[in-house]
Amino acid sequence: MALNSLGREIPESYAGRRLVPYSDPWSLKPAGQIAARELRRRNPGEKKLLSSLREAVDAAGLRDGMTISTHHSLRNGDFLLNMVVNTLAEMGLKGIWIASSSVHPVHAEIIPHIRSGVIAGFECGVNGLIGELASKGEISCPIIVRSHGGRARSVIEGSVGIDCAFIAAPCCDEYGNLNGIFGPSACGSLGYAQVDALHARVVVAVTDNLVPYPAIPVSIPQALVDHVVLVERLGDPAKIVSTTTRITTDPVGLQIANFAAQVIDASGYLADGFSFQTGSGGISLAVADRVRQLMRRRGIKGSFGCGGITGYFVEMLEEGLFSALLDVQCFDLDAVRSMGRNRTHQEISADMYASPFNAGAVVNSLDCVILGATEVDSDFNVNVNTESNGYLLHNTGGHSDTAAGAKLSIIVAPSIRGRLPIVKDRVTTVTTPGETIGVVVTERGIAVNDRLPELRKELAARKLPVKEIGQLQQEIYRVTGTPRALEFEDDVVALIEYRDGSIIDVVRRVRE
Amino acid sequence: MTDSKLRRSLLYVPGNMPSMLQNIPVFECDGVIVDLEDAVPLAEKDAARQLVRRFLENYTERNKEILVRINPLDTRWGYEDLKTVLPALPDGIRLPKADTPEIVERLDTLLTEFEEELELPIGRFGVLPSIESALGVINATAISRSSSRIFALAFGAEDYTASMEIERTKGGEELFNARTQILWAAKAAGIQAIDTIFADVSDMEGLRAETELAKRLGYTGKSLVNPRQIEVVHDVFAPKEEEVAYALEVIEAIKRARLLGTGVISLKGKMIDAPVVKRAARVLRTAYAHGMTDTPVDEEVIHGAQ
Fold first, then answer.
1. pLDDT tier at B306, thresholds 50, 70, 90
2. Is B113 near chain A, with CB under 8 Å?
3. Interface predicted TM-score (ipTM)
4. Contact B58/A478, CB-based, under 8 Å?
5. Do A101 and A124 meet the contact criterion of CB atoms below 8 Å apart?
6. Measured distance CA(B156)–CA(B160) in Å, rounded
7. Which of A12, A148, A446, B286 has the lowest tally of Cβ within 10 angstroms?
8. H helices within A243-354, ranges in order?
9. What is the per-residue DSSP string for B205-233?
10. What secondary structure, in 3-state letters, does A43-71 show?
11. Whole-number mean pLDDT of chain B?
12. Are strands A275-277 and A227-230 parallel, antiparallel or unpaired?
């Protein structure tokens, strides 16, 4: 065991690999080259269209112990990962690793295949039941949780080698040009799949919408795609994207949003050229709404909005409040439609979005980002992976990437969730290190990281309720009482990898 | 009881909901009215009373005025409400269905008894009578003078329209006479006037229009049913920038007057005396609460003007 710089106990190795304990967000340097794959040749007249996933598995040369990937742009409406794993099981393969960009509750269907040994482990974060069962010790499979940028980095540097990427392609032609904009399973940006298409040993496009050549616009080009498979349905459109995401009407949420917008205003970044990212949650959108009103009132023209894009950001683009949207994933149908309509709504890869190991990610140019939290601690460390019961239930998303990249990262969260305090002495799991967090905004007050004394002064001058994070914690504890500490066994069920590949924390089995 | 506390927004919070009570410190209204009356079903009256008491006992760092709306004193809960909540020291009582001065006098007597029993200064608890019937409107002037504890009159339009057997409309023409009469009574007694609630919590434009009307008439605040309404109401009651600038000049002028040993001075050809200073002070208190000025009003200067 080693202690990382945040005092978290990290095993020396896990699932057969040596681990590097997290030290800080900036200093770990990459070594080596971008991962390459074999050249290939495709002569005129050779067909790529295969008749089934089984044929694709054969054609890809998948064997026991290999690694496959899918992307999660279809989110909880995704059918592909389940179809692929069922096919692998029918073909008798064992010990397969899943290196998808994320796994969702819909994929609980593959749990029997974990128990039977078809699946050996996950090179990705998991949302929902798989993580919970692992946390309870009811299934056994290594899980390595990565941020969006960290996953792109791991694939590009080759620390995760994908043997076959199955790319859900909502619109695809027979020669493998594809996009996510059109078709019954339209999901918009294919930012995660673009990384896999460039680096997987074999690339299989799977579509339920085969269109005449060429499928335009080209998000992933034919030159990267080895095989094409037509299936009946890629996903459930109702669950691929949420319907219009809504600004919260909850008074507590609105209060938080009001404070957060004032923090942005006080930061000085809200000027021409402003760049901004929020999630799709109700509070985030309420912040965006207030920022939008300020921009309108002052005639501010922003530079770009990025991350998961919602119809709300599309409206801001079309209103001229941003010059561009840089989109790694669409969160709603308005965003999907905008990609086909707005030239300045630009699809970007997860690498360009957030990898720490390239010539410069988009997150590095962000002024402000609004992020959520399950827990925050007195060092501003943030947990978004495990719930208060200690179960691994969520992937990291772009949380730690944007926090590291943005000039000002703002956590917005209600001070009490259920009956539990949001601020604790020590978070159950560190997802994002406190040194990359600027401000924590709750309805009971605003805590500013010590590294931003000027901002703290400005907020105080504006008579906003600035509090030490410890003071905020005590105020919340007065309402909730002090929470009892969770108990864990020694077994590690998941690694939380920081975006640079070092280990920021581990998730241990919960003592029942 | 003439006082100058800001009461732009008095937010109703149901007394039977712990999740709402716990958020009272958080909302940026000027005061709350913790409700034991209409918001609480009969079966929960006793439990709500206890809950409110516990909450108030623990809410020690008060950052806003706390009023409790008790049940009417002619019900079997009204007296119990007082007995339970007064030891937890709310700032005052919002008295529903204040139809006659006698009802207020009865409350005054009871409050005096509790103050004696609790060894508190007499007059510790303020009273905000709610005028919400035709009879109450007719008696508004007498009610406003029925107790020195009264710091404002509140208008309750929902019950008022019920008592008049009419519908309440968005335009509010049917409320105009009652609104005005209550206002006259309050102004004549030198106390504040708090306008009725606006029930449609999703109609912010309607709320704005109604609050603007109330402000134009002379109301100093509004009762609210949802925290989302606070911002709009504060926005309406915020003074205009030129008003703030003028008020600051008035305060500077009266400071100069004090140095010269007089209570009257001329500013831009106009005489500045105590009433003008008082009005300037009200503007500046509101401006400060609204974040429009950096420093609180110099109460010493105002005091000297009264």
1. very low
2. no
3. 0.79
4. yes
5. yes
6. 6
7. A12
8. 251-267, 282-298, 311-318, 333-341, 350-354
9. HHHHHHHHHHHHHT--EEEESSGGGHHHH
10. CCCCCCEECCHHHHHHHHCCCCCCEEECC
11. 92
12. unpaired
Residue B144, token pair as written in the block: 């406003």
Number of A/B CB contacts below 8 angstroms equals 27
* Angle (deg, nearest 10), helices B204-217 and B176-189: 50
Residue type, A123: E
- Helices A251-267 + A453-461 axis angle, to 10: 120
Contact assignment for A254 to B227 by CB distance below 8 Å? yes
Torsion angle defined by CA atoms of residues B169, B173, B179 and B181, in that order, rounded to the nearest 10 degrees? -140
Predicted confidence (pLDDT) per residue in A148-177, tens digit: 999 999 999 999 999 999 999 999 999 999
d(CA A444, nearest CA chain B) in Å: 6
pLDDT band at A339 (very low <50, low <70, confident <90, very high): very high
Q: CA-to-CA distance for A462 and A190, rounded, in angstroms? A: 42
Residues within 8 A of A (CB atoms), B 211-230 only: 226-228
Confidence bin at A244 (pLDDT 50/70/90)? low
Going by pLDDT thresholds of 50, 70 and 90, the confidence category of residue B295 is confident
Any idea what the Cα angle at residue A473 is, between residues A470 and A474, rounded to 5°?
90
Query: Which of A255, A461, A478 is opposite residue B27, by nearest beta carbon?
Result: A255
* Ordered DSSP codes for A370-420: EE--SEEETT--EE-SB-TTS-B----TTHHHHHHHSSEEEEE--SEETTE
Q: Which long-range contacts (CB under 8 A, 24 or more apart) does A288-296 make?
A: A288/A312, A288/A313, A288/A316, A288/A370, A289/A247, A289/A257, A290/A257, A290/A258, A290/A260, A290/A261, A291/A261, A291/A264, A292/A316, A292/A319, A292/A321, A294/A261, A294/A265, A294/A270, A295/A270, A295/A321, A296/A321
- At residue B2, does pLDDT exceed 60? no
| pTM for the predicted model, two decimal places | 0.89
Checking if the pLDDT of B125 tops 80, the result is yes
What pLDDT, on the 0 to 100 scale, is given for residue B275?
A: 82
Q: Rounded distance, CA A32 to CA A112, Å? A: 38
- In this prediction, residue A411 carries a pLDDT of 97
Mutate to test the interface with A, among B11, B12, B22 (most CBs of A within 10 A): B22
> What does the CA dihedral A140, A142, A146, A152 come to, rounded to 10 degrees?
-130
- Type of residue at A302: G
